[in-house]
Structure prediction request, 87 residues.
Amino acid sequence: MHKVKRNLAPKGLEEKNNEINKTDALKIDVDAEWKKFSRTKLKQETLNSLQEMYAYCCAYCEGEIESVANGNIEHFKPKTKYPRTYV
Prediction:
């Protein structure tokens, strides 16, 4: 297992997170939000930041991202503590 040096989330991701947190959870269409996010430059910036943070390895199996997956985004913060966040 390699040590992970946490970096900061991209600025735009923090802004998106703040926007989501100001919205009533019942009014958020998570699937629609994810589809919108998936087509943005911010998604690529987030993916690049995560890849750098994990030394271009899968956070679970530590295989090279290119050889084990297409580089899906997980989370910068634990979902158990931050359930309504992209970060």
Observations:
- The longest helix spans residues 41-53.
- The CA atoms of residues 32 and 73 lie 16 Å apart.
